Amino acid sequence: RQYALITGGLANIVNQAATSLGFALPTYEVIQAIISDFSDGNVDGTINGTPVSVTNGVLPSDLDLDTAITRFKNNNFANFQTTSLLVINYDLLNNILPTANAGTDQTVAQGASVSLSGSASDSDGAVVSISWTQTQGTAVTLDNSNTLNPSFQTPSISDDETAIFELTVTDDIGEFSTDSVSINIVANNNPVVTAATFTVDENSANGTAVG
Prior knowledge:
Largest sheet: 4 strands, mixed
Distance between the termini: 87 Å
Number of helices: 5
Radius of gyration: 33 Å
Helix content: 10-25%
Strand content: 25-35%
């Protein structure tokens, strides 16, 4: 029923906007304008402060979704008297996700010390949490995994392999972004030495290699 309240509130918003613009009934253009208005997470006649234009002018600036939902509930009280009003988190709707960059892929030898070089930013708030996890490859221990520059020692391996690490950046609203980096680890395969077998001829000063 809360979804019905939201739908009814949006219908009231559309009707209010159409009436304010001088239309007898809501038009497709008005509906599209309201959808555009909601793209920034709020219905207030603007997109991030810029008025939304339509043929007859701009959307009215007194649009308010919470008020429209309440009005719809009151007008249909018999059907919604036991339905609680939905609390809309406009901060969450308006939020821009943080940016995560796990850095450049690297190629290193086994046994090497590796430092990851991540970066993070949040254009409309603050980064409050940073974490790294390994998603592929022989497990290693990440030192300072809650910083942008963790480090680890590459493991001993018999064949070349790729370790992948994922950076997760969380903002002050609780939303997050991720990015991954690949560390290509080259195995240190020592050459195999085969010893030769010699036979000695008692009548010769030189031996003969066999095999």
